[in-house]
Each structure stands twice: as C-alpha cells, then as structure tokens.
Amino acid sequence: MSTLDTLQDILIDEFNLTRDQLVPEAELTSLGVDSLDLLELMFKIEDRYKLAIRDDVPTDLTTVGDVVVYVDDLLARQAKARDAGSGDLHAAT
Amino acid sequence: MNMRRVAITGLGVVAPLGSCVDELFAHLAAGRSGIRRLAAPLCEGLRSPIGACVEFDGGAHFAAAKLRMLDRVSQLALVAAAQAIADAKLDFAIERSDRCGVSVGTGMGGAGSTDEGYHIIYAERSERVKPYTVLASMTNAAASWIGIDYGISGPNLTYSTACSSSAVAVGEAARRIRSGDVDVMLAGGAEAPLTFGVLRAWEAMRTIASQDIHDPSASCRPFSRTRTGLVLGEGAAFVALEEWEHALARGARIRAELTGYGLTTDVAHITRPTVAGQAGAMRAALSSADLDPDAVDYVNAHGTATLQNDSVETAAIKDVFGERAYSLPVSSTKSMHGHLLGAAGALEFVIAVASLERGVVPPTMHLDSPDPACDLDYVSGCARTGVTLSAVMSNSFAFGGTNAVLIAETPDVHRRRH
Lengths: 93, 418
Prior knowledge:
The complex is a heterodimer of chains A (93) and B (418). With 93 residues, chain A is mostly helical. Chain A has helices at residues 3-15, 35-49, 64-83. Chain A is globular. With 418 residues, chain B is an alpha/beta fold. Chain B has helices at 21-29, 64-67, 72-88, 111-123, 133-137, 141-150, 165-179, 196-204, 244-249, 275-289, 307-321, 334-337, 344-358; strands spanning 6-14, 36-37, 50-51, 100-105, 156-159, 184-191, 235-243, 256-265, 298-300, 330-331, 391-396, 402-409. A ten-stranded mixed sheet of chain B has the order 5-4-6-7-1-8-12-11-9-10, sandwiched between helices. Chain B has a two-stranded antiparallel ribbon with strand order 2-3. In chain B, 59% of the residues are buried.
C-alpha cells in the first residue's frame, strides 16, 4: 500500500472525507484539516509506520501530497538509519 | 426611566434524569433519582463509586473532526445551549450580534481532557499529548464554542466560582441586559467532573456521600440526620435571557421574568459557609427584585447534603424569612440529580422556572429522618402539585464563599419596575 493510500485511509476515518477529495494537490485547510489536526494526524502515521515523529513537524505542509513526501522522506531516513546500525531515527537527522 | 426587565424565553438542559426540561422535570416530580453506582473502570479504586451520569454520546451530535476539539463539558454545553436557543426561537442571523452575548459558569472546565493529558504524560510516559489538550481543557472553551457556532459577537464570559459558577453566570448576564449593554444573553453552566482524577480528589476532601449499600440511588440525603455528603453529577443547563421589549417585539413566548439576583461572599474559611453570607445573598436578591420575603413561594435550596451546608442554609433561610420560613416549601433536587458543581446553579434555576410554570414543587428525596437542626418544610418524599407559584428562589453557594441567589417570577406584562 502506498503512503498516499495509507494517508487517505486515515483521513477518511478521522475527517469524514472521501477518497475523491484526497488527491495529492488537495489543500489540507480546504479539507478542514488545520495545523493542530495535522499534529494529531502524525500520531496515527507514527503508529502505522512505527515512526517516531517529535515536535519538528514542518509548518509548510499545505497539501496532501506534501504530507506524503514528508512521510516518505522520514521512512527513507529511518531505513537508512537502520542500515547504518542505529535504531534511532533522530540520531540520523 | 423604567428599569430594563429581563425575560426568560428559552430553557435547555442535558442532565442526569433528562435530556430536555420536560423529561427532567417529570422524573424530579416523580421523585426518581439519577444517582447510580458508576460503571467500570471508573468505579474501581474509589471509596464511594457513585455519581449522576448523563446518557450522552457526543458522536451523535458532532462530526468527528469537531468532536476531537471538544471536551465533554463543551459537548454538553453546546447541546443544552442549542435547546435553549430553539426553545426561545432565537435566530442569531437576524439579531445584532454585538448586542448578544454568552455567559457560562463552570467549576472545572475540561477536566477530562486535563486528566487524559496528565495520564499520557505521567502514567504512559509518552510524548504524545494531544495537540488539542489546551483548547479542550481551558475553562472558557464551552462559552467560546457557543459564540463561534452562533456568531454571537458581544461579551463572551466565563465565571468560575466553584459551585455557584453558573448562578453567577446567569445573574451577571441579567445585569448586562438590565444595564443596556446587550439585549440577548445565553447564560448557563456546564460541568463534566466524572473522571477518575476528579473523583479521587473530591474523595480526598471527605465530602463525597457514602454509597448506600442497599440502594445507591438513595446515597444523597439533604437535610437528613443520616446525610454523609454530596454526590457528583455531570451536565449542562442554559437559559435564553432577553430584554423584555426585545422579546415582546419579536413575539417570543416569555416563560418567566428574572427579577432578582443577590451576591455576597463568606469570608470565614475556604469551605465553611456562614449564615450571614447566605442570608445576605437571599436578602440582596429580594431587594433587587423589590420583593417582600412573604411573596416567595418556593426555594430550590443549595442543599448539598454535606454536614455543614444544610444546617447553615436552614438557619439562613430562617434568618431571612422569619416565621414564614416554616411554611415555605424548600427542596433540594440534588437528592435526585446530584451536585453538578459549576452547572448546579443554572440547572436548579431552570428547575425552579419549570416549577413556576407548572405549579409543581419537586421534592427532597431520602429524607426519612430529618436532622433536628433542619426543621423546615422540605417537601419530603413527594412532589407538591397544583400549587400556585408566582415567585421562586434558587440558592447557590460555594467553596471559596461566593453566594449567588436568583429569583424568577411569573411573567406579568403590566408590572412596572422602577
């Protein structure tokens, strides 16, 4: 399942949205997802991907696609950190 | 110039025993108690696992995205306020929004969200405190949401004077209408204290009633020799208050007139009430209503069933009403709906207004053996029906000492106030 699919699933559950609305270009604010909602959304993403996201979520995530890129980047860095023998994502950032 | 009068045009409640005024009042008049043994897991680890819960599911009223931002206290407040608005047939889209305001009383605000946040921090040792914790738990959240939802842009105020909070909120709202600052106020209170942390803290004060082993619903016994304390309850109650001519001009049904509001403070001790403070608040309310004590037909007492309150309140009533005190119906409906703390004053004022409209005095329940120091007519065990009521008083007292008393009278279009 792609990151976009997963993000769509979470948003459909939590915000009463449909998959059609959740295209990569869709702006979060126009979907009713504000900056605090986005922080709470990150908890769900952490659980889904076993990620540890701390208080450094960027404030310039404006579209669904931006969140996908951000999560994919975190996943890539986590994989890299694991390959380097460190289990701590933040040690690699 | 005549003083501006305050009409009560709408009532709303979400309370133990009823999710509307009619349902609540029918249960009270029948002497039914909403106090129960609390369900698991809340009851585990409590000395006295009893409370008065509201059957309420926020998911039935709010979309998930909004529900996330609302503590239970704000959910209850929004639903009760919506009832009062619908009952008054108020449409804020056609009102001058800056001439309308919101006035809410709450003792503990979003206690559940605070409790949950601390559990995440201290018990789970997690960093994942919910981003909405501050906004859900802040004391003024309920008032703010009502203002936002209805576009009410005048004063938006929250009063926190412990157990008299919402009596103060209603009284201060009436003053704003009288003064000419506003024409419409939504006023009331909300409380959602049935969380483990709050229940344990109240238990630690030794003010919570012991559970009646045979009948948990009979655990709260105001004015009784065998009373052991209060029972916490949750809920919300609101009134729509309007300047009299404003209500008449839009053809609103005026349920009652809010004529009296008295406020004093005990300065003896943080918890101990005083006869002088309580009596002073009742006198101040009578004076602001320009009403003779003999004209009061019913007192909805503060009547918490704590050792201190009930004997002091009885003495204060005697101090104000003299001989009349012995023939004046006084009841504590807390024996049935429990103590809603910051929401208690508004709830009991709504009950007093409902009483006035129906000519029915709700009883004090579980009063089989009165305290010798409590020797008034407490309407014990059975409602009094078919009585003519023209003025009712509602008493609200508090830890911290803020005593607030409200008076409502039957609407009389021809009365002139000076």
